[in-house]
Amino acid sequence: MKRFLLGAAVVLLIVFGVRYCENQQNEREQLAQNSQLIQEQIKNVGKLVVTEGNFSQVWSYKDSKKFYLDVFSARKKALIVVNAKVTVSYDLSELETEIDQENKRVIIKSIPKEELNIYPDIQYYDVTQDYLNQFEASDYNTIKKKVTASIKKKVEASSIKSNAQNRLISELSKIYILTNSMGWTLEYNDMPVNSQNDFNDIKL
């Protein structure tokens, strides 16, 4: 009887041991699969997110030069019409992440900064210039710099940047949705992201 009980105990230990090893193996395989899915999602998110806008402006340019002890002056002026295409982009291929498979964590280590580009199309009308004060390359360069600075101020006062951030958050939320569905934790700045709304508090 004792031998029977001892044999039964050994068999049970072997069965439980095999099942434990199988469960451990299944968990490792599941972790590896989840990790791969997350890596694929991060790869899919890693694209260029671009928000475009168009800005227009009309202004006049005037310049004068004095000659002969300020007795004579030479003038030039033009009406300038500017139509500028503006893009605000985030290159999410530069998104830095770390996958902690053991603790089921995905850590966003760095979010790329926005990139602002202004492409002004400058048209000149009603151009008048005196012989001694004509338009030169330096004038056009100065005008372009002033135009770009002026458009940039308009961009800062518009909603294009916030729209771009909303698109960025939408892309990052895809990572949260996947990790959350798998029971993983998404972190940024040493803080867990507990909902999609938490991304709105991220300082970019």
TrEMBL record:
It comes from the Bacteria. InterPro entries: DUF4230. This is DUF4230 domain-containing protein.
